[in-house]
Design brief:
Two copies of one chain form a homodimer. Chain A is mostly helical and 162 residues long. Chain A has six helices and two strands. Helix content of chain A is 56%, strand content 6%. Chain A has a two-stranded antiparallel sheet with strand order 1-2. Chain B binds a DNA duplex (30 and 30 nucleotides) through residues 49-50, 52, 67-69, 77-84, 87, 103-107.
DNA sequence: AAAAATAGTTGCATTTGTCCACTATTTGCC
DNA sequence: GGCAAATAGTGGACAAATGCAACTATTTTT
């Protein structure tokens, strides 16, 4: 059994040591691959690179007036990183920001026409990309994994109800 | 149906739009969380931050003489990123490098005593971290997800045999 | 012998993430 | 009412990681 093969020169001879049975390894590695693929598909789209932009755009589009801090929780960024992200998207004329009347500390975010257009454009792309990318996993298993990770995610960010 | 809730001020009122059913979203998000947690546990350990170091150390430890380019494939980095990673680990006296006799373009990597020690130290930590982190997922489901992702990963990097 | 492929290195520009301190506003408590 | 603490967002500095492209050295192909 390959537990100490010397000088492997091709990937086929390699076993992954304890990482072989480590879920976090696969999550971390698949993340790299899936993110790269997604970036490639959105190339030049104003929304590319990094985890935040897509989620932010879609979230603001379907939740007009949502606050930066809420989005920050959802994508697990700290407020300063979130602020910069929003700043960037405002410069690109995708979002618009205004101070909340009832909570003058907070802001309400809205999409611009251009932002709405882009949201409509990327929605199907994002969905398709995920399906395509994982197409070598059977539909059923894909759903299984997603179901489990969804629950994990929800617990993690503190989404209790549906 | 929450499809256009205005001004949600807490995360519980938010639905994730199409991302709700997008596997890539969960992979990307869980990646952030699990990586952060892992970094925290390995704080100061010489191996922390970024996906590569741990895998590299363990791989070199259990496959003496392995080449940088093979590791690069496994962790999905390009050669330049891999080179820098190795450089860093050599500076920290974890690895040692020598030109292959048969293939003078290539290098063989070996762990130093310090590297071997660290490998032995982090092996259980990495395993435990993954188990702990995903502990709110039932053992059985954890195994299920891992099994599926493992197969996906193998196909992706071109590991055919076992 | 020339051309192409492979392994690795280096430099550079871009991005990203993190930490910390700072302002403004609201809430809670006395 | 008034003061302290919590919350929302901003801004700066700094360390890393990433990706791209050009470059050397070696091997393989033709």
């Amino acid at each position: 059994m390959p537990k100490m093969m010397p000088k492997p020169t091709t990937i086929e001879h390699v076993d992954l040591d304890v990482l072989e049975d480590t879920l976090s390894f696969y999550i971390r590695t698949m993340n790299i691959a899936v993110s790269r693929d997604l970036d490639a598909r959105l190339d030049g789209c104003d929304v590319a690179r990094g985890t935040g932009k897509i989620t932010t755009l879609l979230l603001v589009d379907s939740h007009p007036g949502i606050r930066p801090s809420v989005i920050a929780q959802i994508i697990m960024k700290d407020r300063s990183a979130m602020g910069r992200l929003i700043e960037q998207m405002i410069e690109h004329d995708l979002l618009r920001r205004q101070t909340s009347a009832s909570e003058r500390r907070a802001q309400e975010l809205y999409v611009t026409p251009k932002g709405a257009e882009l949201a409509a454009m990327i929605r199907p792309i994002v969905t398709k990309q995920s399906k395509d990318f994982f197409s070598f996993i059977a539909e059923e298993e894909q759903a299984q994994v997603m179901d489990i990770l969804r629950r994990a995610y929800r617990k993690m960010v503190g989404m209790t109800g549906g």
